[in-house]
């Protein structure tokens, strides 16, 4: 079906549907250079995106960026770095750090038990 009919079925304007397509929120066009035809798969994808936007109170642009973070490692790393810098994320603990902390806890406990005996 054409964009006008698809937009009508989804309860949005053709312009909003084109905007979502420009953001990358629709499956890619199957044939290179072909005009987009909307089938049930495309309609379901748009409906799922709209549902996520409503559920998490985000805009289509925010949802498109979240997909970039998930699909582009360099974007994910840049966002992770920002999260660490502003304190929204914590750096992953290395196994060696965990073992060191565990050993220090055991030493502290053993010292406490030794001082109780004297």
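-> sequence recovered:
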């Amino acid at each position: 079906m054409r964009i006008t009919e698809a937009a009508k079925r989804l309860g949005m304007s053709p312009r909003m549907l084109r905007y979502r397509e420009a953001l990358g929120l629709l499956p890619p066009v199957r044939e290179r250079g072909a005009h987009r035809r909307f089938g049930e798969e495309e309609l379901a994808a748009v409906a799922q995106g709209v549902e996520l936007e409503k559920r998490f109170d985000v805009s289509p642009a925010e949802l498109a960026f979240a997909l970039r973070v998930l699909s582009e490692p360099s974007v994910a790393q840049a966002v992770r770095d920002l999260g660490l810098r502003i304190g929204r994320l914590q750096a992953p603990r290395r196994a060696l750090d965990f073992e060191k902390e565990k050993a220090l806890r055991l030493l502290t406990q053993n010292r406490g038990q030794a001082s109780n005996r004297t």
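The helical segments are 3-10, 14-23, 40-56, 60-71, 73-85, 95-117.
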